[in-house]
Amino acid sequence: MSLLKGCFLVPTTKNPDKSLWFIFHHESDGILAFDVTKEHPDIPYKHFETVLDAEDKKSSRDKIVLLGGPRQTDSGMIVLHNQKSAPNSHDMGNNLFLMSYRFVLLPGKPPMITRSDDQPTRLALNDSADFIVAMGFRLWEMAELEAELKDWQWTLLPATPEILFHTPRENRLQKALLSIN
């Protein structure tokens, strides 16, 4: 199970969960993943754009913050592609890198992100970088995940830049399912 980081957790027909989960962390007792298919209902992308030091060239349709999951919804994860020199990033394999931040929204103040030391920061991304932003995540205990995998509720698939960055969020699960078959 040590190779789960950087994989998709894909629901099978036996599973009522119809989300595509990106696994960004694992340890012997569990994994952390975020959903790459659902738009966050409360955080508009314009709040996130205020902390970028570069122009975001995505189409307006792709400028969304994802609702990653129910835990720590102030925790932001940014998955990057084509940006090898991002500070504080973690290599996820397949030329994907993860940056984590705390996203702070205070009434009457501009949005900000903070590093693990609670110091405000900005994101400097190069013009060719692809990225997605998710707030929150889900935790699976390893025993729970192993039981669900044995019961064929999930299958694992290496995450690809094609699905993460070049497929509309509402089509990502279908594209992942097609790449399995």
Question: Your description of this structure?
Answer:
This protein is an alpha+beta fold and 181 residues long. It has a single domain, classed as VC0467-like (3-Layer(aba) Sandwich), CATH 3.40.1740.10. It has 4 helices and 11 strands; from the N terminus they run E-E-E-H-E-E-E-E-E-E-E-H-E-H-H. Strands 1, 2, 3, 4, 5, 6, 7, 8, 9, 10 and 11 form an 11-stranded mixed beta sheet that branches. Strand 6 and strand 7 form a beta hairpin. The longest helix has 9 residues. It is globular, with a radius of gyration of 16 Å. The model has no long low-confidence stretch (mean pLDDT 85).
Keywords:
181 residues, single chain, eleven-stranded mixed β-sheet, 11 strands
Shape: globular
How much helix, percentage-wise, in residues?
Answer: 10-25%
Described by strand count, sense and barrel closure, the largest sheet is: 11 strands, mixed
* Rounded Rg: 16 Å
Q: Low-confidence parts, pLDDT < 50 over ≥5 residues?
A: none
Span from first to last CA? 22 Å
Order of helices and strands: EEEHEEEEEEEHEHH
What is the count of DSSP helices, taking H or I runs of 4+ residues? 4
Give a concise summary.
With 181 residues, this protein is of the alpha+beta class.
